[in-house]
Specification:
Radius of gyration: 37 Å
Strand order of the largest sheet: 1-2-3-4-5-6-7-8
Shape: elongated
CATH topology: Porin
CATH class: Mainly Beta
CATH architecture: Beta Barrel
Number of helices: 1
Structural class: mainly beta
Amino acid sequence: MKRTLTLSAALLGTLALPAFAGSPEIGYSEPAPMAPAVVQAPVASHDWTGFSFGGQFGYGKVDSDNPDREAGDALYGLRSYYDYDLGNFVVGGGVQYDATNIDLGPTAVDGILRVGGRAGADLGSTFAYGTAGYAKAFTDDNAFGDSNGYFAGIGAESMVARNVSVGGEVLYHKFEDFDAKAFEASATTANISLNYRF
């Protein structure tokens, strides 16, 4: 009887092994963790609505029909604007004045005034725009006189601190109203600016 029980236990143990062999506990491994999703940092936005005041420095060149009356020199001046942020679009207007000493022979251009508008894209911390408006060239010769005219160009302004921006512009000007009636001139200027925005 004891021998029969021992044989039966051994037989049952042999039959049970395949069941344990298929158990999920044997040879089981955890799935590899998924890599975290990459989240793009949002583009820093800026509300461009408000006044700005700044200084600018650059270079200007005056061209005319007379090659002897063409020259260029440094520009330095002040600028002030008011802009309104419409979301993806910004519009504004302002005034600039540059002092210079562009020697044209019989006279020299010693200042350029601009009053105009600008409009362009709000790219977050950068405002890219086109600009145009009224311009006036001042000379150091009363007989030669000053001239009304216009300007047009492109520019961009980027925030570098909470209330501080840097900008750059390239502008074309046309002047046809000097007292010396035979004289007409165009001017191209390029400048960089540092602005405080209120």
